[in-house]
Amino acid sequence: VQLQASGGGLVQAGGSLRLSCVDSGNMFSHRIMAWYRQAPGQQREFVALISSGGNTNYAASVADRFTISRDNSKNTVFLQMTMLKPEDTAVYYCKYYTSPVWGQGTQVTVSS
To answer: How far is 84 from 91, CA to CA, in rounded Å?
Structure first.
């Protein structure tokens, strides 16, 4: 598996979680990395992306609560999630933004 996400879990509304995604490839520092999520019965949706230079973009629904970052020395992209809401419940996936290949996801469940 090229991309392995972790850090999900069960959290109460208003809480925080930090997701990590490790890339086992050798081009990580050059890649635009993105987080997506898929809630039960819903389509996958874009959450955030970060360019190789550190520029970021967010879905409007998370822009004031989530922060994407990366550590190129560790081939890892992070998603810091704060002020979580029940509607944030989903499987979260990281991927290369320009690739159709999906990594393994991590479940985030927010209880009300």
So the answer is: 14
pLDDT tens digit at each of 112 positions of the chain: 689 999 999 999 999 999 999 999 889 999 999 999 999 999 999 999 999 999 999 999 999 999 999 999 999 999 999 999 999 999 999 999 998 888 889 999 999 9
Helix, strand or coil for residue 96?
strand
Residue 1's CB is within 10 A of a number of other CB atoms, namely 8
Residue owning tokens 């979260």: 92
SS (H, E, C) the chain: CCEEEECCEEEECCCCEEEEEEECCCCHHHCCEEEEEECCCCCCEEEEEECCCCCEEECCCCCCCEEEEEEHHHCEEEEEECCCCHHHCEEEEEEECCCCCCCECEEEEEEC
